[in-house]
Write a structure and sequence with these properties.
Among the domains are: about 70 residues, ATPase, nucleotide binding domain (Nucleotidyltransferase, domain 5), CATH 3.30.420; about 120 residues, Rossmann fold (3-Layer(aba) Sandwich), CATH 3.40.50; about 140 residues, no CATH class; about 90 residues, no CATH class. The protein contains 22 helices and 31 strands. It starts with a strand and ends in a 5-residue tail after the last strand. It is of the alpha/beta class.
């Protein structure tokens, strides 16, 4: 075979790994030889109408660059920010929650209503006690009646009280839902073995919401590999940076939240060999900040937090902010000076939608420029995303979809009443419609730092935006160039705040205020400005920053100056996610517990339900064997070789009458190995 133009003897097995990252704006691909050298890298626009188009373009480009035959690829791996972006932007399918053994008030109290976003929930009797005994019979009749009344559900979430101690009611409810509807079902006990039923329920709801989206992504990625001629197995990056099989990711898509950011951290470490740094990865939708300490990414013990939701998914300790190259630019017109603010919602850049529909966009922009008074819909457009189902859309939403058709329309032509605004945003949240507006990417086109799309449309869009009036009656900016610089400066400021928040959050010193408040505190800001008065104040980030992402080189040098720190922009920083997708390990952790419900009795909580033993050591051995089998099998199913297993036992005891008495054992088993490669 030939690799990079060099002929390699057939007996000289060489691992050729293909890494692909599908982000909100770009799809990246890299080809790595023997986990040591990047042979080629490429970018293609993410095509949400059909993800396979962007994936295929990027893959074919790296194969051509490296002069590699598709059949010679030994492993493929995918990371993605689509799940993270969907939760940040509130998108996903229509779901239903079956909440067993809890109260109606729990839906509001624990944030479940926010996670449901108006989707239906059923609270029914059932559930178990903390010791695994049935607390009440499962109300099967009410469940069946609910299922008969609700159609158009893309995925169900089932969460029962103390399901990790006994999952019988979750499993029975899932069986009935599958029998009646055929829709995918997520059981909370399958996602986490930790106590806290409401938090597990939130995680299950988000998993159910993502199932359709991630299933489409992985399915189309696999089809694309086959069409190109790549037969190697495909892996997917989890939120903790480890790898799992494509089939495992399709069943548990929630585990892919922070997949792209986690891959970027693994990639940053591989590209720089830096042991301690803040990694900041800027994409189209988000900026993700995490800490590498002693060469390893920090894991969030409380579970991944994305889009305002704290999940029970084990993931890198990542602070995700709705700030990226395609963040919506909002005018700040209060006060005498005015300004702009970025995010958290992503929109299509004007320059990008103009490149795709030039006649419609330029005609509308020109018409708006001829109007003397600025309006809220200037330089705003909408288009439908083909292939996204519209079940459950209300009447106003259906009217908008009919009016929109397959065209790109200016918002001032699409929206006819104030009430239709809310309907449009519901369609955007469901991922059915995309809207466009002014973004930092457009600003970079105007400043001649970027020329990927339609620069003339970016100029027109920023001219329209700059006409908005501040509190003193003057224009927001005198020229499109002035506005563009204002936007880029705001990107610097908000990125610096993201990094400061992360640094304060990781500080061992207690400063008495939340990290966000400390980052914005007047003393911090004056210190960064090197205040000199009666007091001399200096502040700086005391750790280096690794800047990643396609636009990192555009924004991060100024961020380094703002924070008085060293910024490293490694080669291949723009495709670090794709690099990290293929240099990680397969790792699975399974946890369980043993309790002592009464004197001389030791209870082990297994998948099939609780089992009792009269000897503590025997109970812990049974649990360890059970967890070893689960973790090792998961690693094997993911395609791992040379699996190593580590066991961590946390045994708690108490002194009673001068004797140590067993209270509880929490056990975690980790199985890991490198993924198998398909060597010819």
């Amino acid at each position: 075979m030939r690799v990079g133009g060099i002929t390699v003897a057939k007996g000289d097995h060489m691992a050729l790994s293909l890494g692909v990252d599908t982000g909100g704006t770009y799809t990246d691909a890299v080809l790595i030889r023997d986990e040591q050298e990047v042979l080629a890298s490429a970018k293609s626009l993410t095509t949400r109408t059909d993800l396979a188009i962007g994936i295929g373009k990027a893959i074919r480009a790296v194969l051509e660059q490296a002069d590699v035959a598709p059949a010679d690829i030994t492993m493929g791996s995918l990371s993605t920010t689509l799940a993270t972006n969907a939760l940040v932007e509130g998108q996903g399918g229509r779901v239903a929650l079956i909440y067993i053994g809890f109260g109606e008030k729990d839906l509001e109290k624990h944030g479940l209503n926010a996670a449901l976003k108006g989707d239906p929930a059923l609270v029914i009797a059932g559930g178990h006690s903390h010791a695994g005994a049935e607390a009440a019979a499962l109300d099967v009749d009410t469940l069946r009646g609910f299922l008969a009344q609700h159609s158009g559900i893309s995925g169900f979430a089932v969460a029962a009280q103390f399901a990790i101690r006994n999952p019988a009611h979750e499993l029975e409810a899932a069986r009935i839902i599958t029998e009646v509807t055929g829709a995918p079902v997520t059981c909370s006990h399958q996602l986490s073995s930790k106590l806290n039923g409401p938090k597990r329920a939130v995680t299950a709801v988000l998993n159910a919401r993502l199932i359709g989206m991630i299933d489409r992504l992985i399915g189309r990625a696999q089809e694309t590999l086959r069409e190109i001629g790549i037969t190697a197995p495909m892996m997917v990056v989890r939120g903790d940076g480890a790898l799992m099989s494509a089939e495992q990711a399709r069943a548990h898509p929630i585990e892919t939240i922070l997949s792209g950011p986690a891959a970027s951290i693994v990639g940053a470490r591989w590209l720089t060999n830096v042991d301690d740094a803040l990694v900041s990865d800027i994409g189209g939708t988000t900026t993700d900040v995490a800490l590498i300490r002693n060469g390893k990414p920090m894991i969030d013990p409380a579970g991944a937090q994305v889009g305002g939701f704290r999940t029970m998914v084990e993931a890198v300790a990542m602070r995700t902010h709705g700030l990226g190259g395609d963040s919506q630019v909002h005018p700040v017109v209060e006060g005498l000076t005015g300004g702009v603010f970025l995010g958290p919602r992503r929109v299509l850049p004007i320059s990008l939608i103009a490149a795709e529909a030039p006649d419609v966009v330029h005609s509308a922009l020109d018409e708006q420029l001829r109007t003397s008074a600025p309006t809220e819909h200037d330089a705003r457009f909408a288009r439908r995303v083909p292939g996204i189902p519209a079940q459950g859309v209300d009447a106003r939403g259906a009217t908008l979809l009919d009016r929109l058709g397959e065209d790109v329309l200016p918002l001032n032509k699409l929206l006819q009443t104030q009430l239709e605004r809310s309907a449009l945003m519901r369609l955007v949240d469901r991922g059915i419609v995309q809207v466009s507006g002014v973004t930092p990417s457009d600003a970079c086109h105007v400043l001649e730092r970027l020329d990927a799309w339609d620069t003339e449309a970016a100029h027109k869009g920023l001219e329209l935006f700059s006409r908005k009036r501040t509190g003193n009656g003057f224009r927001l900016a005198a020229t499109p160039q002035d506005l563009a610089q204002m936007i880029v400066d705001q990107m610097t400021e908000q990125t610096a705040l993201c990094l400061l928040e992360a640094a304060f959050a990781e500080e061992t010193e207690d400063f008495g205020l939340p990290a966000a408040a400390l980052a914005r505190h007047v003393l911090t800001q004056r210190g960064l400005a090197n205040h000199r008065g009666l007091l001399a104040l200096d502040a700086a980030l005391n750790v280096g920053v690794i800047g990643l992402g396609a636009s990192a080189a555009t924004y991060y040098p100024a961020v380094g100056e703002r924070l008085h720190c060293q910024v490293e922009l490694p080669e291949y920083a723009g495709v670090a996610n794709a690099v990290g997708a293929v240099v990680g390990r397969v790792t699975f952790r399974r946890s369980g517990s043993v309790t002592a419900p009464s004197d001389g009795l030791y209870r082990v909580y297994l998948t099939a339900g609780p089992q009792d033993y009269k000897d503590a050591d025997q109970a812990m051995t049974v649990l360890e064997d059970h967890l070893r089998g689960q973790a090792a099998q998961a690693a094997k199913d993911a395609g791992a070789d040379d699996i190593r297993v580590l066991v961590d036992r946390d045994v708690r005891s108490a002194k009673v009458s001068g004797q140590e008495v067993f209270v509880e054992c929490t056990m975690t088993v980790e199985a890991s190995g490198r993924p198998r490669v398909a060597l010819g």
